[in-house]
Amino acid sequence: MDRLKIRSPSQRALALSLCGVVALSAACSDDGAVVAPADAAIAADTPMTTDVPHATDVPHATDASGHGDAAAPSCAMGDTVYRPTGAHWDYMDPSEWAMASPAYAMCTGMNQTPVDLPAMTAAETTPLTFNHYGMQALRLLNNGHTLQVNVPTTYGGTDPSVSYNGTTYYLLQFHAHTTSEHTIAGTSYPMEFHFVHATNATATAQYLVVGVMFNIGAESPVLRTMLAQDPGEECIRERLSDQVELGSLLPANRSFYHYSPGSLTTPPCTEGLNWFVLSEALTVGAEQVAEFGRVVHGRNNRPVQPLSGRMVTRYTAP
Fold this sequence. Notes:
Elements: E1 2-4, H1 9-22, E2 27-28, E3 34-36, E4 42-43, E5 80-81, H2 97-100, E6 116-117, E7 122-124, E8 128-131, E9 135-136, E10 139-142, E11 147-150, E12 152-153, E13 161-164, E14 167-177, E15 183-184, E16 191-198, E17 207-216, H3 221-228, E18 235-237, E19 244-245, E20 256-263, E21 271-278, E22 282-284, H4 286-295, E23 313-315
Parallel strand pairs: 6-15, 7-23, 17-21, 17-22
Antiparallel strand pairs: 1-3, 2-3, 4-12, 5-18, 8-13, 9-19, 10-11, 10-18, 11-14, 13-14, 14-16, 16-17, 20-21, 20-23
């Protein structure tokens, strides 16, 4: 096992909060080192703090620690039990997240996500390129806040990735929110997917997240698969019976909004992430949105946060 030392407090905070996304068998030590397999065969196992239910969220029964169900979840044969870590939080009042634990203090930071993306923005000339977003055999996690699809990656070869400004970021997982977390010129959407990427599995990795909006219309085949194979709360389906076409979750027009730094949209709300939201929306069925809402006990979106002087730019695809 290699211990990948974190060289600064900010790197330590980011690595600790994203450790579960870094490697299937990774662990974070108390002194801020990430323990990862020497061969760096990476897969996204634990959500990178995903984004999820609002005032209609139903809190779960908790054990003596105040986190998680009092009884172990009942997962189907072949599925794996998922156990969340950290202090319990919910969507009853996201403004109180920072009070739930000292580890969540960043939730009141100055560079938080999501934000409202203004109609008038400065122009950007650097495109965002999606690579190898094809058919994939994936794992599905229901963490009680969202449905999340984990994508095994070795950080190279033909693994799904995005390239921006000379740097390649590899896809770790994607998950859904209803309603959308970002808004565009004050307008929210029925659903938003987030695609979480990282440059590598080390403590100094850079993270890039892409948001895709959904309007009501034709059903989403990928969401249909996710809902049909939902393993149940706090359970992981190790392999979906149907492969997922990742490219079907991207609009043909790759224009986008961009801002940085942003943050995780759930505790611990770690900052330092590069955020992109595609301008063109896809469609999802109204009943699919309703069914997803039932799975996550309501709405799972964090309210928009102040831009606090950050600049939003917009790239227009040719």
